[in-house]
Design goal:
13% of the residues lie in helices and 33% in strands. The chain is an alpha+beta fold. Strand 2 and strand 3 form a beta hairpin. 49% of the residues are buried. Residues 1-35 and 120-131 have low confidence and may be disordered.
């Protein structure tokens, strides 16, 4: 039996197929069929080879530290180089020995019952006990003297730890943040952190209120507040200024076309697809206490890294596959470095974390969706990529370890949910069994880097992609998925059915035609006859795999074939939005891929599209008062049975680009609306066509 995560095989098929078009390599390699086969089983193939559900292979370099149950999103190396702190979707900080990779400590986050270090009352909201301890998108930093560790917590506070040199951490307490007025939340969302050189001031990106806060590092007293761009992510200090990266670019003005960005906030969007269309860096001069500039960068400006001499600031533009280089003397972008080979390559590197080496001559870039760290020779104006280091699944944090001439890389997805949780002697799988890793990688020499680059390119199917881009051949037979772009396919029409939250074996494990496990089938043919009939008449898809973990990222995989850095890092409790597009609060233009959706692609190529519920928000009400507002499943079913029309039931598009395609007299996700209603609406229109 092969494990399949909890989204539908049909969705998994399209997600996997389309994803291949978005993961080009960053270095020139001649096309080759070697190591391009896609028929291996998903899972761990040997000690250091893992086949992922997204049709990529992991063969990470260096020593691997396994962190079951953790999605590591933030990492910091102590100033003395003896402690490596890691945090993520977990109620603790994990302390590693950077020399050996051994886990030295698991330190629970300070709870609300622990000491409140704040001397000012900065929020009147009483927070619940901190049971989950979720780190935010980023934000873990040691004080310059190494005596404190600060962590940004998604529940709306900063957690503070005492550092015992060479020994470990103890929880010290909590610093409160200024209150915020956004939908269904009274506490702000801390993201990136920076500490002043003297350790007395703490700078915090307030991701929900679009502000930067300056706090007294000891007491949490608010010393200053500045307005910055939309969804500020990271913070860096240089030349008497504070630099703040903004995932969503400039704040909208009265003339801006805007879209939702979670919790009632808005972001500038493009006029065609309504996807977030800016990234920026805000610059605050500390002497005058003014915001002096907003520097335009690429999309999803996220991680910042300051060169050792302080002259240049690198900005990871995760949704543009670039790094912007800012001269801190002039606050101008002096270089844009592509993290894929050329601008003509398809989207899919997702640079989201950065680190310089001690000399400042080399920049290391976490290319999340390439499962690799890109190595760049850093010469502003002449910088270039020199190779790739294969690491774990979706690297999202990196630090340079000068004492050991090595890199420490936090792999957010690590090896995924491929190892079972053993309960009562039985192996149990669940897509939310997070299993992150940390790669400890010695810096390679030129020959080793060349070899690792070849490995990384093979792992991301670069030879196969290169071959697919060759000119179409004449006389090729039609194939379901053509080997080259422009060659004929068997398909004329595509009916794409998305059914989430079930594994293959739960529904179709009883089908003898497939590679399934009947013992796991709990919704077999007697319960799901339509699913079985569709599988027999069209395709069983028993060995296609799901890339998503839950609805928020599953719909992105199913519709865009890739998930953005914004969404991969939102697993810290989804504090801004849960962008599955099912209701008004779950629409977020920052979550969407800049490459667009499957319908954008089809429409741009002259194809017709009809949408019967995907990314559709249900609207319903009684046509005439009946004494209650609630509309139950029974009410809907009786409407279907007896042909009455007492309920006004329709849908609005969650994404504006769907408006011309959306069938509005049906609904998408609404558990109160029976499937027979949806089927009837589809059949009616099918007959019209």
């Amino acid at each position: 039996m092969r494990f399949r995560a909890s989204s539908p095989p049909a969705a998994a098929f399209f997600a996997t197929t389309l994803l291949l078009g978005g993961l080009a390599g960053c270095l020139n390699q001649s096309p080759s069929r070697q190591h391009s086969a896609t028929r291996e089983a998903v899972g761990q193939l040997d000690a250091n080879r893992i086949y992922t559900p997204v049709n990529q292979v992991l063969t990470p370099a260096g020593r691997q530290v396994e962190l079951p149950g953790l999605r590591p999103q933030a990492m910091a190396l102590s100033p003395d180089g003896r402690l490596l702190a890691v945090s993520g979707h977990t109620p603790e900080v994990v302390v590693l020995d950077p020399a050996t990779g051994s886990i030295r400590q698991r330190v629970p986050l300070p709870s609300e019952a622990d000491e409140d270090l704040s001397t000012d009352v900065v929020s009147t909201h009483i927070m619940a006990p901190d049971k989950s301890g979720q780190v935010s998108f980023t934000g873990l930093v040691f004080s310059p003297d190494g005596t404190r560790l600060y962590l940004a917590n998604a529940q709306g506070s900063l957690k503070v730890f005492q550092v015992h040199p060479g020994q470990g951490l103890t929880a010290l307490g909590t610093l409160r943040l200024p209150s915020v007025s956004v939908r269904r939340r009274a506490d702000d969302l801390p993201a990136g952190l920076a500490v002043s050189r003297d350790g007395r001031r703490l700078y915090v990106a307030l991701n929900l209120s679009n502000r930067l806060a300056e706090l007294d590092a000891a007491t949490g007293r608010v010393l200053g507040i500045w307005n910055v761009g939309v969804a500020p992510y990271d913070v860096a200090l240089a030349a008497g200024k504070v630099y703040v990266s903004n995932w969503g670019g400039r704040r909208p003005d009265v003339e801006s076309l805007t879209g939702p960005a979670g919790r009632g906030t808005t972001v500038r969007v493009d006029p065609i697809r309504h996807i977030a269309c800016e990234g920026s860096v805000s610059v605050i001069d500390l002497a005058s206490s003014n915001v002096v500039r907003e520097i335009m960068t690429g999309l999803h400006a996220s991680a910042l890294a300051l060169s050792p001499d302080g002259r240049h600031l690198a900005v990871a533009n995760a949704a543009s596959d670039t790094v912007s280089v800012i001269d801190t003397r002039t606050d101008q972008v002096v270089e844009t470095l592509w993290t894929r080979q050329t601008p003509a390559d398809l989207f899919g590197a997702t640079p989201n974390a950065l680190a310089f080496d001690r000399s400042g001559n080399t920049l290391y870039i976490c290319n999340g969706t390439q499962n690799a760290v890109a190595v760049a020779e850093f010469k502003p104006g002449q910088s270039r990529l020199t190779g790739l280091i294969p690491v774990g699944w979706y690297p999202g944090a990196v630090v340079f370890d000068p004492a050991r001439s090595s890199l420490c890389v936090a792999n957010i997805k690590g090896i995924g949910s491929m190892k079972p949780k053993v309960v009562d002697g039985q192996a149990r799988f669940n897509s939310r069994q997070y299993f992150g890793t940390v790669s400890l990688v010695p810096l390679p020499d030129r020959r080793r880097l060349e070899a690792w680059t070849r490995t990384a390119l093979r792992n991301m199917r670069h030879p196969l992609l290169k071959a697919a881009a060759l000119p179409a051949r004449a006389g090729q037979p039609p194939r379901p998925v053509p080997e080259r772009v422009g060659e004929p396919s068997l398909f004329k029409h595509v009916v794409y059915i998305i059914k989430e939250n079930r594994t293959y074996d739960q529904v179709l494990g009883d089908m003898k035609e497939g590679n399934g496990d009947p013992s796991l089938c709990i919704f077999g043919e007697a319960i799901s006859p339509n699913h079985h009939q569709l599988a027999r008449e069209f395709a069983l898809l028993d060995n296609t795999y799901c890339s998503g973990v839950l609805s928020a990222d599953g719909h992105q995989w199913a519709d865009s074939a890739i998930v953005t850095d914004y969404l991969e890092k939102s697993f810290a409790g989804f504090p801004r939005s849960y962008p599955d597009g099912m209701d008004d609060d779950d629409v977020d233009a920052l979550a969407y891929s800049p490459a667009g959706f499957i319908w954008d692609n089809a429409l741009a190529r002259g194809k017709s599209v009809r949408d019967y519920g995907e990314f559709a928000i249900t609207r319903k009400a009684w046509k005439t008062p009946v004494g209650r507002k609630t509309i139950t499943w029974t009410d809907h079913y009786n409407e279907f049975l007896f042909g009455t029309e007492n309920i006004r039931l329709y849908s609005d598009p969650a994404i504006e680009s769907l408006r011309p395609c959306l069938v509005t007299n049906t609904v998408g996700w609404d558990m109160a609306a029976p499937d027979v209603f949806r089927a009837r609406q589809f059949i009616r229109e099918l007959r019209q066509f």
